[in-house]
Amino acid sequence: MDIVERIKAEFPQIAEVMSKVPETFAPDWLMASAVQETGLDDFGPDTFREPLERLCASINEDADLNPYGRLLFASVIRNQLGNRLLLQDTRKNTPERLSEPLVPPIIVTGLPRTGTTFLHRLLAADPAHASLPFWQLNRPIPRNAEDTKEKRIADVEALLDVRRKVTPELDGTHLIRAEAPEECLHMTGVSGFTRLYWNLGPVYSFQRWLSRVDKADKYRDYVDLLHYLQGEYPGKRLVLKAPDHNDGVAELLDALPEARVILTHRDIVEQIGSFLSLGRTTRKLAVNALDTAKEAEGVIDMTDVSLQKMAEARIRHPDRILDVRYTDMMADPLASVERIYEFCGLTLAKSRRDAIAEHHARNPKGKHGKHEYSLAEFGLENDWVRDRYKDYVAEFVD
Predict the structure, then answer these.
(1) Residues 197-223: what's their mean pLDDT?
(2) Which of the residue ranges 9-13, 64-68, 122-126 would you say has the lowest mean pLDDT?
(3) Edge-to-edge strands, sheet with 321-325
(4) ∠ CA 148-153-155 to the nearest 5 degrees?
(5) Reported pTM
(6) Residue 214 neighbours by CB distance under 10 Å
(7) H/E run at residue 269
(8) For residue 366, is pLDDT > 80?
């Protein structure tokens, strides 16, 4: 039974909503839906329009979505547009929330599947730090007085309950829980400049454009949201992570110069194989058929551009970026943490170190299942990949 049939059988209310999503995506009806849901109509600067238009075109031309895929994309886009409306409303009516002084944040990024989640959750275990849970990233600003923290958590729990029932295998590749630290990819969608949509389905032309476009507008919105959320965690250092940043590190640090960025690096064959496998696990659910050759082509393009952009960021911001190897993290996680603290000018007191060590002991890698993959499944050869990225590997992996 495929996912559409499972939803019809197990979640009839969701199936009814699924049947009503238009087959053709267009900015106007998506925006109108967000306006209806929030009661707001000011989206702020129109910088979001181009990515939204390009996304809709890519969905219509590239993705071949099934009914579940259309529901998934429509729901996520509307939520992000709703968050944009709420951010603009905050700018107009409570601008003081966006001027909360930031404790200099630590932001973990790198190519996908290079240990960013592992490292992020280690850093988040420090009681002096605040990591953002999934529910808060998904709904950072309440929609009204009734949209309490408890309601938002309950709404997200309901979404994740469906995810666990229809796609239980996803916990072994990327575990998500409502109140657990999650990647801020789920918050970058307010600008439209986000890889979130690539994670949902094969929007090839959108992602190719997104990889290359300047991200200054993205990070203006992102920094405003960080200021807002700092107010929820007074005195604590925000610790964030998302591979979504890897092709925009320079613009991120332009907008947030007090931040420190940690770039993670892993064996390139393992990294690309894991990323392709995860993508197949998630994106195949949303489409009628997934073209594995195009998947591989898209991932190689993303990798090429990301490595170039990260190199440019090191030139522009040489003192704000630290490179960390995956093998070092796996061999001695606490030593990697200590190195990061030293880079950030922080002291790892015994109580903080013990909290991180306890988290690691409770959450060994592979606890939620083993993720197996092979490049050959996607028409790529290990030697070809190693040769293409040999300079990168020599500098940052070996």
Answers:
(1) 98
(2) 9-13
(3) 129-131, 237-241, 106-110, 260-265, 321-325
(4) 95
(5) 0.95
(6) 10
(7) helix 268-283
(8) no
